Amino acid sequence: MSGPVGVGIIGAGVISKEYLTNLTAFPDVQVHIVADLFPEAASARAEEFGVAAFGTVEDALQHPDVEIIVNLTTPAAHVPVALDAVAAGKHVWSEKPFSLDRESGQSLLDAASDAGLRLGCAPDTFLGAGLQTGLRMIQRGDIGVPLTALTLMQSPGPEAWHPNPAFLFQEGAGPLFDMGPYYLTTLIQTFGAAQTVAALGSRSRETRVIGSGPRAGEEFEVTVPTHVSALVQFENGASSTSNFSFDSPLPRHGFVEITGSEATIAFPDPNRFDGEIRLHRHGAEEWETFPAAGSTFGRGVGVLDMARSIRAGAPHRAQGATAFHVLDVMASIAESVETRSFVDIASSAAAAEPLPEGWDPTARTLS
């Protein structure tokens, strides 16, 4: 096929607005349909962004011009919807998480491989200008050999501002599974695949209280660790130390430092697509600051890279296999917390090639 790559959106919730804002601005993709379990939600989103059609999930899966299904359903529906899309002959991009467990995630990888179809998955924040600039600097040797990393994600927890936060403190969430994908994806893009993990976790309170919205004052149960400290060793011998916490009165978001043999680089927040980069060279008194170079478009750039890669017959960057590896690392960290032991990672994944500095989502490259 030639020309723009056809896209179908499944899931017309809050996150669909950011995806549609960007995807409808990229000439190399064309959104043909918005689908949802609730037709009125699909209709509203389609009208808002000038998409020609709306309908049911089956309508999107059977649309003849759709090549990529963008799966923005609830986490529990990610794998079932993706499997249906693969069965319909579509490539799939999913919001995070790739799956809720290793078994269902592996079944999806196997199904797509057997069908010769592609899987992509958020987060695609590492394709933004901020992290891409940092990754290019490492690749060209600005810090020497990358050796270790330190990442911190600390906050008092989202219950103070989130009107319905209970799910963030239950299985499949907590600070590790909610925020871990951003930090672990960045580390894997820096060092390559993880090999072994060890971790400790704790839960400061058995219950928490909703702080805003119509349910303010309501108490809910906490069932997962709200603080996790993790050590990761990568296949190349590098290592990292990470804290993921909803127990800290001192917020620290987006702290990622990579130390090399010659210098240390501080990345911008891995939950964002922009941000400056700081570099501290061996023996220097001050940090140097570098502006980000590249695209600062938000969610959807991974879909675009996937679309262009389909036409070029080249690998796309935000691979489903990488997202599965991130899930495997998080599940292994959780297992280490439970067993108080080192856990080896069964899966593997390769870091993606950085985007060219001049990569432009608004360029028309597919005639």
Give, in order, the helices and strands: EHEHEHEHEHEHEHEEEEEEEEEHHE
CATH superfamily annotation of the largest domain? Dihydrodipicolinate Reductase, domain 2
Q: What's the CATH class of the largest domain, please?
A: Alpha Beta
Spatially, the strands of the biggest sheet line up as 16-15-14-13-7-12-11-8-17
Q: Could you give the count of β-strands?
A: 17
Radius of gyration: 20 Å
DSSP strand (E) fraction?
A: 15-25%
Low-confidence regions = none
Classify the secondary structure makeup into a structural class: alpha/beta
Q: Give the fraction of residues assigned to helices.
A: 25-40%
How does this structure look, described?
- The chain is α/β, with parallel strands linked by helices and 367 residues long.
- The protein has two domains: 5-121, Rossmann fold (3-Layer(aba) Sandwich); 126-290, Dihydrodipicolinate Reductase, domain 2.
- 31% of the residues lie in helices and 25% in strands.
- The protein has helices at residues 14-23, 39-49, 57-62, 78-87, 102-115, 129-139, 174-191, 301-312, 320-339; strands at 5-10, 29-35, 53-55, 68-71, 91-94, 119-121, 146-154, 194-202, 207-209, 219-221, 227-234, 239-245, 252-260, 263-267, 277-281, 288-290, 343-344.
- It has a nine-stranded mixed sheet. It has a six-stranded parallel sheet with strand order 3-2-1-4-5-6, sandwiched between helices. A two-stranded antiparallel sheet has the order 9-10.
- α4 (78-87) runs parallel beside α5 (102-115) and α5 packs antiparallel against α9 (320-339).
- The mean pLDDT is 95.
In short:
The chain has two domains: 117 residues, 3-Layer(aba) Sandwich (Rossmann fold), CATH 3.40.50.720; 165 residues, Dihydrodipicolinate Reductase, domain 2, CATH 3.30.360. 31% of the residues lie in helices and 25% in strands.
